[in-house]
UniProtKB/TrEMBL annotation:
UniProt KW keywords: Membrane, Receptor, Signal, Transmembrane, Transmembrane helix
Pfam family of the protein (one): Tissue_fac
Stated name of the protein: Cytokine receptor family member B16
PANTHER family according to UniProt: INTERFERON/INTERLEUKIN RECEPTOR, INTERLEUKIN-22 RECEPTOR SUBUNIT ALPHA-1
Origin organism lineage: Eukaryota, Metazoa, Chordata, Craniata, Vertebrata
Signal sequence, start to end: 1-25
TM ranges: 220-242
InterPro entries: FN3_dom, FN3_sf, Ig-like_fold, Type-II_Cytokine-TF_Rcpt
Amino acid sequence: MLQLTHLIKSLYLLLLHFNINYSSSPPIHLNISMQSVNMKHILIWSPWQVSCSTVNYTVQFQGEYELHKLNGTWVDAYDCQEISENQCDLTSDLASNSDYCIRVMTKCDNKTIWTQLPLPFNRRNTVLLAPEMTTVIEGDLVQVGFSTILPDMTVYMESWSEGDEQNALIHVIRNFPYHFSIATHRGEKMCFRAEVLVEAINKSCSIHTRCISTPKTADFGILVTVSIAVVVVVALAIFLGCSATCFGPYIKQTICHREPLPNVLVSVFLTSLTIPAQISKKPLIFLIEKSSHTHKMFQTICFVC
Ligand SMILES: *[C@@H]1O[C@H](CO)[C@@H](O)[C@H](O)[C@H]1NC(C)=O
Ligand SMILES: *[C@@H]1O[C@H](CO)[C@@H](O)[C@H](O)[C@H]1NC(C)=O
Ligand SMILES: *[C@@H]1O[C@H](CO)[C@@H](O)[C@H](O)[C@H]1NC(C)=O
Ligand SMILES: *[C@@H]1O[C@H](CO)[C@@H](O)[C@H](O)[C@H]1NC(C)=O
Ligand SMILES: *[C@@H]1O[C@H](CO)[C@@H](O)[C@H](O)[C@H]1NC(C)=O
């Protein structure tokens, strides 16, 4: 009985010893993991828990080439030598579809501790997130853009007018943003769907169907509106000018009787008047610019009347 009590007591003391000495001791290895999204590979690790006066980290990797052809040598990660941060961007280092072993060396004062990523990393395991697709209509053109553009990215986009999916057009897009004409589909509802392929890793993700209404008329409508506006404003200017000259001697006194207008100004105004007649997208700008010269216009029109 005494022996049993003694044994229990010894066991208890042993347990207490373990509790005090080991349970609160920090982990002696780092918790390393790879976060790879859209072909950007970031190695992250937990901070070193043991107190040291200086601590820094060095990252190395070993691909299948180094393992089999270079006798198992390790390569220093370009940007991650004796760094104090707890992460390392390995995007440019892990540039093939090889399986990579990755390890981090912790330097704590004069100790070095190696920790290896539990499983080899292959960039084919990157998580591809479908980018946002934007479609903007500019006249007869649709501009297609994507929120993220990865190197080596090809987009296979289908476009069709609603209800005619079997005749969808396939666009192979490698340059961004991409433009194509919808002149023959004016006024229809256009639908788009896309598949984003990153050829280097032969991995793809889908962008779901979206439909947009296209305007019935293109720039032509705007052009007509602008032309009408120009005609109205010029007519108004002539009317005001003439009424000032012909019906209002008092107004004429105040508006028209200034110093005689030099011939240069007359010719400048007459030349500029001919500009809106040309069909161009500029007339609106012209009008805004010229409105500050209304005073000069009145002078000229009075002169002509
Ligand atoms: C290790 O880190 C990963 C990612 O940060 C986390 O999900 C996991 O819980 C951590 N494991 C431990 C044992 O701390
Ligand atoms: C490869 O490593 C072994 C021992 O690890 C060594 O004997 C051999 O010389 C090395 N070969 C080359 C080419 O470095
Ligand atoms: C990294 O830590 C080691 C040992 O603590 C130290 O000798 C070395 O100078 C440190 N490197 C940098 C860049 O701080
Ligand atoms: C380095 O290690 C030696 C023993 O290996 C120890 O005596 C010395 O104090 C250590 N230096 C530092 C700066 O920790
Ligand atoms: C790419 O992956 C597809 C399946 O997702 C497969 O059918 C095709 O053969 C692969 N191409 C290459 C070049 O590996």
